[in-house]
From TrEMBL:
CDD domains (UniProt xref): MDR_like_2
Name of protein: Zinc-binding oxidoreductase
Gene3D superfamilies, sorted: Medium-chain alcohol dehydrogenases, catalytic domain (3.90.180.10), NAD(P)-binding Rossmann-like Domain (3.40.50.720)
Entry superkingdom: Bacteria
Ranges for domain Enoyl reductase (ER): 14-335
UniProt-listed Pfam families: ADH_N, ADH_zinc_N_2
Amino acid sequence: MTEMMKAVRLHEFGGPEVLRYEEAPRPVVGTGEVLVRVHAASLNPPDLYLRDGYRALPPEWRPSLDFPLILGTDISGVVAAIGANVPDFSIGDEVFSMVRFPHDLMIGSNAYAEYVKVPVSDLAIKPAGIDHIRAAGAPMSLLTAWQFLVEPGHDAPNPFQDFDHAPIALEGKTVLVNGAGGGVGHLAVQVAKWKGAHVIAVASGKHETVVRDLGADAFIDYTRQAAETIAQDVDLVIDAVGGSGMQRFLSVIRKNGALYLVNPIGFSGHEEATRRGITVSTAQVRSNGAQLSEAGRLLDDGTIRVVIDSEYPLSDASAAHQRASGGGIQGKIVLVAR
């Protein structure tokens, strides 16, 4: 008999209201996999895009999927079962992970559930110094900041450009983080600071106290002043917002500096960047248990902190998605399964 669990499933594309909390088959681990009993899972932008059917993409790029789907990639929980060829984990271990991303980008990685199976290469021991809620909030956002600013951690082809992303050395450099109050942004501020940079944070004024507490040296409230009219001679801008107008930051970057785009779709400033001698680069974040383990040491000792915007029970995932769609998020939104 198939064992069952509770999960949040998608039977059609649409708004937050299409998410259903219901019975679903419990996954069975295979070789090189671990079954995790989920204590918490966090929301990320790809969850919203998939729920909506990737309507922002050109029609020919949209996936043709078989329903039902289970959304989500980021989890923290406890190992409940282990498949063959898994030497480094034991039942009862507390772990966290970004699950099978971007491999399951278009179909969901099944994190909004009581149980999820995780490839051992995606898994890391949860830092003892933080709880499951903060651990669940870390993986995608922290790995994005890490792979942009510290080490890509893989040699997979870059889907966005014909050259590999190569982080610049940050010691003594000036780094501007646009979207510093959000999931990726508040972690990018801390990673850049840890690497020795002088950090300018750009966000709405309500985030200033938190972002300065996380280590930002300067703060620009974009609702009062345009960042590109204030900042100057910046070595690196990392834009964690996306959308139109990303090229406006080229004017604040010094020659031989760089602009990193977390979401490059819509950027139209490549010719200007070449003229100014600025490198524009982006990357696709990828699951990496070894990097999570390395970054986890900084979570463990408090060097890097995960800010939680809000918590919702797994059964109320639709409300969590409604909150995510409302904007103005400070840090991460987390679903609590236990």
